[in-house]
Design brief:
The structure holds two protein chains of two kinds.
Chain A lengths: L1 H8 L1 H26 L3 H22 L4 H25 L4 H25 L10 H4 L7 H20 L1 H9 L1 H6 L4 H23 L4 H15 L3 H26 L3 H19 L5 H29 L9 E2 H8 L1 H13 L3 E5 L2 E4 L1 H19 L2
Antiparallel strand pairs in A: 1-3, 2-3
Helix pairs in contact in A: 1-2, 2-7, 2-10, 2-11, 2-12, 3-4, 3-5, 3-10, 3-11, 4-5, 4-10, 7-10, 10-11, 11-12, 11-13, 12-13, 14-16, 14-17
Chain B lengths: L1 H13 L7 E10 L2 E11 L4 E5 L6 H8 L7 E6 L4 H4 L3 E4 L13 H6 L3 H4 L7 H13 L15 H14 L4 E5 L7 H16 L3 E5 L6 H4 L2 E6 L1 E7 H4 L2 H8 L7 H6 L8
Parallel strand pairs in B: 3-7, 3-8, 5-6, 6-7
Antiparallel strand pairs in B: 1-2, 1-4, 8-9
Helix pairs in contact in B: 6-7, 7-8
The chains are: A mainly alpha, B alpha/beta.
Chain lengths: 377, 271
């Protein structure tokens, strides 16, 4: 395919792919902890809150340097997180209400500043509105380098303080009893979340960035019961979603953020359905198989019971309506089909059925088994 | 540095008639202007098994968390073996309420138990061979050795409790603070916890446990504190765990439990 050679040789596409890979790794790895700590909503509030940070950073410095805008975004996200914590601690407002409040206030303020900037005649204002829904095609080399460098710092901190963050996420009270400064660790891990969000803002946009923090972690959790594997897998899935989404959006000219998020959501849905043990699909299939086996045995038992009423003529066939009366049409039809296929029952004529020799044996064995099980203490 | 501090503290603690294992003085703590603990004193001598007993909302867990420095009292102070908690935390092991953590967290039994070594390990260092060995030994002590590699969500409630106890054992402490260790556990676990408590007492350790089952207080513990926001009574079970005190603690809704013990007629509480 052309797209692979483009990925290697096309400058724009390569920049886009590298940038989205970096943002995917960072948001995946850090986001895995956010998922475990139930901070998804906080991530959403912080990413929306980053908008006024970006806009104000531009307004104050007049610069569009990625690092300057990232710092602005991070500061705003951070202030938002502190505001949420402050509201919860100082008032009786619950965390979810506080986050909704902060999210809308900061996002609203961001939109106001953004529209104000748009009306300015100054040059170089163009492009800030990309921070709403993201635009991977607008990524420059300097963006990618900044994203990779800032993201690397976050991942490094995560790895160095791995044991501390694991303990904090699993059992903060116990961590505090051991003397770890739990509040400061909490602030640090939340700051890493802010960094992960900020790294992806230009590509994914403030509106949907929180999905990139949550989706890879939620998907990875389905496949493993080990924290290390989960974080690694989350980083890989994040990178995959980032690269696939941004390449699709760049070539198909769709908005990048939504495209990436759709891919990431697809990964979540697949994981929820098909992950071994946790997957919903496997559980359904197991239940369905069990139900079918039970129906089969039940119809076998019905036929045996009917033929037992004609003990001198065991081959006596019975009309299918007699079975419908006990079970329900669909169940009987399917079970009879299967019994016939296994050579346990046969159709004698029209809609009349009887058990074969083998079928009678199987039925009496099942009956004996039921009897001993019922008799067992 | 911490090792020497530990040794010094141990040496100090080893003196005969040394300081109390746990001493809380005039502790007062309020949530939203409602006192949870009001002027509570707690004196736990070394080497006893003490139950903290009282109705729901009496402040039992709050008292335990205050001792651990997880809550800051509005007034009063706490001493562990004569010094503040911060200086003595290597001598304290904590068994939180089982329901206080998410058991679907992606980790193994072995890993949770190893968390008991984090206090000694300090920052950044990861558990090594020695820590792994000690974790396994602790799991053996609670009969959970064969579950070491299980994911923790696959455990029953009693098994979860035993994992938490193993984690506390790994802390190798002098004082064990337990929040409802008997809450909703099976008979096997109950026996395991009782035998563990006796082992700890035989080793001269001190245990303070929040407990809710009045029927078993006299059987499992030798000291008791009756708490209902204020301290109602505290002392050896035989002296303090009497119907009169219980009626004050529970507001007159208790009959025939402690009184039975005092008269020696209760079927379960008679040793």
């Amino acid at each position: 395919m052309d797209i692979f050679s483009d990925l290697l040789f096309d400058y724009t596409l390569r920049t886009v792919a590298l940038g989205s890979a970096a943002l995917g790794v960072v948001s995946g790895a850090v986001g895995a902890f956010a998922v475990l700590r139930r901070q998804a909503l906080l991530g959403d509030a912080m990413s929306h809150a980053a908008l006024p940070g970006v806009a104000l950073a531009f307004l104050i410095t007049g610069s569009r340097t990625p690092l300057v805008l990232m710092i602005g975004a991070a500061l705003a996200g951070w202030v938002a997180a502190l505001a949420v914590i402050g509201i919860v601690r100082a008032s009786r407002v619950k965390a979810d209400a506080a986050m909704a409040l902060i999210l809308s206030v900061f996002f609203g303020a961001g939109l106001v500043v953004l529209t104000f900037i748009q009306r300015q005649p100054a040059a170089g204002k163009a492009g800030l509105d990309r921070y709403l829904f993201g635009q991977a095609a607008a990524l420059l080399e300097v963006d990618v380098i900044t994203m990779a460098a800032v993201g690397a710092v976050a991942v490094l901190v995560l790895l160095v303080l791995w044991k501390e963050f694991k303990l904090l996420s699993f059992n903060p009270d116990f961590a505090a009893s051991l003397g770890y400064p739990v509040r400061r660790l909490d602030v640090l891990l939340t700051s890493l979340l802010v960094i992960a969000i900020v790294v992806g803002l230009k590509t994914v946009g403030v509106v949907l960035m929180s999905a990139m923090v949550v989706a890879p972690g939620a998907a990875a959790r389905q496949w493993t019961d080990r924290l290390g594997v989960m974080v690694l897998l989350s980083a890989v899935l994040g990178a995959a979603a980032g690269v696939a989404g941004s390449v699709i959006s760049t070539t198909a000219h769709t908005a990048t953020g939504p495209t990436i998020v759709l891919v990431a959501t697809g990964l979540v849905v697949l994981s929820l359905l098909f992950a071994p043990r946790r997957g919903v699909a496997w559980a359904r299939i197991r239940a369905w198989r069990r139900r079918r086996l039970l129906a089969l045995e039940a119809v076998l038992g019905d036929l045996a019971a009917l033929s037992a009423q004609h003990s001198r003529e065991p081959d006596h066939a019975h009309h299918i309506a007699a079975l419908y009366a006990i079970r329900g049409r669909a169940v009987v039809d399917r079970a009879l089909g299967e019994l016939a296929a296994q050579g346990l029952a046969r159709r004698t004529s029209g809609d009349a059925w009887t058990l074969t020799e083998m079928g009678r044996e199987r039925a009496s064995r099942a009956a004996r088994l039921r009897a001993t099980q019922a008799g067992a203490p | 540095m911490s090792a020497t501090a530990t040794q010094t503290a141990r040496a100090a603690a080893a003196e005969a008639d040394g300081p109390l294992a746990v001493e809380a003085t005039d502790v007062t703590l309020a949530y939203h202007q409602r006192p949870a603990l009001w002027d509570v004193d707690l004196e736990v001598p070394r080497g006893v098994l003490m139950a903290i007993v009282g109705p729901n909302g009496a402040g039992k867990t709050t008292l335990l968390r205050t001792i651990l420095g997880l809550l800051r009292p509005a007034a009063g102070r706490v001493r562990i073996l004569g010094r503040p908690y911060r200086a003595q935390r290597h001598l304290v092991a904590y068994v939180p309420q089982r329901s206080s953590v998410d058991w679907d967290f992606p980790t193994t039994v072995r890993d949770v138990v190893a968390m008991g070594t984090y206090g000694r390990l300090g920052w950044i260092r990861r558990p090594g061979a020695r820590e792994r060995r000690r974790s396994l030994a602790a799991l053996r002590q609670v009969g959970m050795e064969s579950y070491a590699d299980r994911q923790i969500s696959q455990l029953s409630g009693g098994q979860q409790q035993r994992v938490f106890l193993a984690r506390a054992l790994v802390q190798d402490a002098e004082v064990y603070l337990m929040d409802e260790p008997f809450q909703g556990v099976d008979a096997t676990t109950e026996r395991a916890i009782v035998s563990l408590l006796r082992t700890l007492r035989a080793e001269g350790k001190t245990v303070v446990a929040v407990h809710h089952d009045l029927q078993t207080v006299a059987e499992y513990f030798d000291w008791v504190t009756l708490l209902n926001v204020r301290r109602i009574a505290a002392g050896p079970v035989a002296e303090v765990f009497i119907e009169e005190n219980l009626r004050v603690t529970y507001g007159g809704r208790v009959s025939g439990i402690a009184g039975g013990h005092a008269n020696g007629t209760s079927p379960k509480s008679t040793p």
